[in-house]
Amino acid sequence: MGMAGLKSAWGALLGFHASLLPLVIINWRTVVPKLSAPIPNILLIPVAISGALAGIGLLMIWPYAGIRDEFSSRVSALGLSGAIWLPFIIYFTLINPWLEEAYWRGTFSTPSRYPALIDLLFAGYHLIILSLFVNGLWMAIAFVILALAGWGWRQVSRYTGSLLPAVLAHSVADFSILLVMYHFAG
């Protein structure tokens, strides 16, 4: 709604977060222990590196990914230009991963070791945004990558009993992706 109706990246993000909060609050007793459980130190570096691979991969495939030529004008039309980028990147990197992980892998977690519907829904949600910028083939590729990421983050959370590894990986992934977007929007 924020992207299509308001033509605003901020509107889309804040609207999405406003829709997640009630479900996270209702499930607070389930989600909070998972958000506050410690991360085994041995996982910190691999988890951070896995998140950084998102931006590195995007940077490497950018010329081939079918990203529309008018990317810069499209993100600018959504309100992302100039000085707005910095607060958007900070908010997106620091707040979005907490809310998404509390929602996707906290509220709707499943103990399954196998790919689950929630992993596909997580990937599918992201296609709404990607459809503004990439063609069908790359949306399919992104769907598979995002479903695998969602499944992987769910497995690490299941194994550790903590959402913090997924939050860390998600945060680094969001930051690295947004840096690439900022670079190409310039």
**CA distance, first residue to last residue:** 26 Å
The main sheet comes to: none
Strand content: under 5%
The helix tally amounts to: 9
What is the CA-atom radius of gyration, in angstroms?
A: 16 Å
Which descriptor suits the 3D outline?
A: globular
Query: What is the total number of structural domains?
Result: 1
Q: What is the structure about, briefly put?
A:
By secondary structure, the protein is mostly helical. Helix content is 74%, strand content 0%.
Report on this model:
- The chain is an all-alpha fold and 186 residues long.
- It has one domain.
- It has helices at 9-26, 28-36, 41-61, 71-77, 85-94, 96-107, 117-130, 136-160, 164-185.
- The two termini are 26 Å apart.
- The model has no long low-confidence stretch (mean pLDDT 92).
Core attributes:
186 residues, mainly alpha, 9 helices, globular
Topology of this protein?
Elements: H1 9-26, H2 28-36, H3 41-61, H4 71-77, H5 85-94, H6 96-107, H7 117-130, H8 136-160, H9 164-185
Helix pairs in contact: 1-6, 2-6, 3-9, 5-9, 6-9, 7-8, 8-9
